[in-house]
Amino acid sequence: MLTLADWHCIQPAMNNHKPIRKAVFPVAGLGTRFLPATKAIPKELLPIVDRPLIQYAVDEAREAGIEQMIFVTGRGKTAIVEHFDKAFELETTMEERGKDLSVLDPTRATPGDIITVRQQVPLGLGHAIWCARAIVGDEPFAILLPDEMMVGEPGCMAQMVNAYNEVGGNLISVLEVPHDEVSSYGVIDPGESRGALTEVKGLVEKPAVKDAPSNKIVSGRYILQPEVMRTLETQGKGAGGEIQLTDAMARMIGNQPFNAVTFEGRRFDCGSKLGFVEATLGLAMEREDMGEEVRAMARRLLGD
Prior knowledge:
Spore Coat Polysaccharide Biosynthesis Protein SpsA, Chain A, globular
């Protein structure tokens, strides 16, 4: 296996890796944990303050220089694409009433920016990523799970792209959690570390606390080489009877450079109701236009 030190030594002579231009967003899930709110509205469009969850992920990708967003959708998810379409009637009405149209700037996409593919059968995250293979082609690509809201300056994907530009290969984002929480997450088996980079020797899904090789959890951001698509092509079903991305990545370790980037920032698990509320409060408290009032509101609610 190439160690982090080995790869760092040979990388300057191989500094010809392709740039990260494309990102895949798996958004085909049913959002059953948020029913009945998600019966007719995609979970990814539920707002954190005044922006839908998917907007934060797309903004993060754009900040990292990614040019093309690939949404892997399912039935009932067309509203996600419409969010990034031009709303002629809305904009015309706003303009006539003298409203500021710049509030819609983050939702504007030019032709080719947004591409959708359909995951017709819910066979897991690995299968959802594989559904984007024709668009990804023979390029390295990013994956952003919108449920994992990553808040930092620069954003998580920008931190990862900076690391990729240095070392290439495959990268995953990790965060350190208390050791007694590792059984709820995918955990890396770490090798050599250098700054924010850690060599990945293996991946363990939801290990028992006593068996966990580290407290560094995989946190929903990836940069992968296109070979992962060929690995997923023959990937059998794993945990939960689904095609797991983690299993495919584990098969690539040792064949290609594979590193983790420790994210400097905060993670909100917006796949859970508590995490969603925490994200809403956390971001609202930091807003210049409402932070002071929200903190005062929280004190009143707590009786403090």
